[in-house]
Amino acid sequence: MKAVSLADITVSPAGNKTTPQRRMHLAGLESVVIPVGALLASMIVFAIFCILAGANPIGVYASIYKAGFGSWYSWQNSLLRAAPLMLCGLCTVLPARAGVLTVGNEGAFIVGGLAATAAGLATQAAPAAIMLTIMAVTGGLAGGVWIAFAAALQHYRGVNAVISSLLLNYLGLALLLQLVEGPMHDPGSLNFPASYAIPESHHLGVIPGTRIHLGLAFGVIACLLAWFLLERTVWGMKAKITGGNSRAAALVGLPLGRIVLLAAFLGGACAGLAGMVEVAAVHGRASQSINAGYGYVGILVAFLARQSPLRVIWVSVLVGAMVASGGILQRAHDLPDATVAVLEGIVFVMILASESLYGRVPLFQRVSDAG
Amino acid sequence: MQAEGAAVSGIAVALAGGAIRGSIPYIFVSLGECLTEKSGRINLGMEGVLLMGAMTAFGISDWSGSPWLGVLTAAAVGALLGLLHAGLTELPRVNDVAAGIAMIVFGSGLAFFFGKRFVAPMAPQLPVIDFGGWSSDPAIHSALRISPLFFLGIAGAFTLHYVLANTRWGLRVLAVGDAPEAARSMGISIRNKRMVATVIGASLAAVGGAHLTLYFPGIWSEGISGGQGLMAVALVIFARWSPRRCLAAALLFGAAQALGPSLQTAGITGYYHLFNASPYLLTLIVMIASCSHRKTLTGMPGALAAARG
């Protein structure tokens, strides 16, 4: 499979006189203007959709803004949702940079949450910090192995990782349902099968002065680390070469398998960590509630961010606000909560369509030639 | 001993009936995907098409009182989604697989949006053909109440096989899928053939979706397709891109899907969720067993093999 859009490969015809710095700068501009343009275009299409559905699009956008960024309270709502989205976005971004497209974010999130719960329950006698560390490591390991498995199938057997990782999502969910109704079942949770709960005192804390849990810090740090790893280390360079042209990478003797598997493992570990946060900070136990769809939205985040870890941060905040507005659309505009899903779908299609514009917008090219 | 035998035969009958019933969406989606892939393009968005087909068929059947009108409208909506997918993948630098993911998100979003109002009621269902009237056993009787779509699906498989092997259009689609450059040099429009194949393919898949809501128990829910659109894509690889083998593979997948519920009717309820997950596991195993890096898969359209690298 071809590598997924790499923002940093710019189209520059041979003999172009622009300096490398200038070209980088223009490419940076291009990779901001085109996604923003695609977002605006999606907003127009969605506005038409709202009109057809009998709602006032300006009112709808005002509500989305209010629900996402209208007050400190809604900012916190958006940021709370942005935290798992950052980690789930990285789950697609990291392997994609090494040339493997995986969409098993939801499954990795679930098994991460499950494994973290099991680890937490086993070590609840320990101090909170130790228990949480063990939970995070176990959750990350579980998610990492989950995605690395899909990547290994593609690398060694030629099984399309998109299909296998989507199948793994369903298997992860089945595993969750089976375990919380079987071996991990808390008899106290009759109507809503759930596992035993980790001690209340051991929950993941909040950022002082807010009600935002530490998951947000995990997300931001993970994105920064991923950026550093990809852009500032030798390994990142190797991963990019592998993703750009695996045949060339093999020719220069790069260990493709190790690079692909590690990238997939790290991506999966992020999603697994998000699952751990969901358990340790939000629900306190494993149940069907941890299957909240962050994994699927994380795929959208990765594509919107064009597989760049730094952009994942602000794209997650934006998409987090979008997700947070589901309830208010229902209450204020009598639109089903699935309206947000329609908006997500439109954005996804538009972002993909805008891929074809890179290197072809005359404006950027003209500046580039003149420079 | 006798009771045990009765339980086993009960499971077998339920499994056979479930295989026929459950195979129908797989038949239609896999035929649609088979045609699309024969033209050299992958449509991973079939899951979205299936959901839209299911929702549309239900809504139109509920609104008009005619389930067949529901099936036709579903096919039309599927065609529109196919057109969007084709248009998207025709753009330069847009990857088939990524477009498929976008179409899953888009199709399911739309289906959930319009489907919200349909969650409660029951729409008029397609008639069933009763082959089990001779039997006094209610289990056999209910297993043999077969939807006419099953026979349409079988007819569709043989028709598609004939069209691809014997008609001018079919041969041109094969040429475009196997050797695009050669086809172009013969003056065949690649874009046109792929567009039509994708549109017809998605339209077929939407009919499979219609079965989900217009056959017993005949309700719409957001989880109704449960990844069947996706599994059908794997099924086509398993069937080595042959429409007739798709039929057999669809029956196998239908049976895997019926395993959980059949065991449940027989009173075996432990590991219920794991048994229900057997189609996903089967698909994964089938994919692992049938894919290989070393050799090009028999029957794989050349353009797909080239894209795989």
Describe what is shown at a glance.
The complex is a heterodimer of chains A (371) and B (309). Chain A is mostly helical.
Give a description of the structure:
The complex is a heterodimer of chains A (371) and B (309). Helices cover 71% and strands 0% of the residues of chain A. With 371 residues, chain A is an all-alpha fold. Chain A folds into two domains: 15-55 and 355-371, no CATH class; 56-334, ABC transporter involved in vitamin B12 uptake, BtuC (Orthogonal Bundle). In chain A, helix 4 packs across helix 11 (294-304). Chain A is globular and about 65 Å long. Residues 1-16 of chain A have low confidence and may be disordered. Chain B has 14 helices and two strands. Chain B has helices at residues 2-38, 46-64, 67-90, 96-115, 138-143, 148-166, 168-178, 180-185, 190-214, 228-238, 243-265, 272-276, 278-290, 302-308, and strands spanning 129-130, 145-146. The termini of chain B are far apart. In chain B, 54% of the residues are buried. The interface between A and B is large, with 51 and 50 residues.
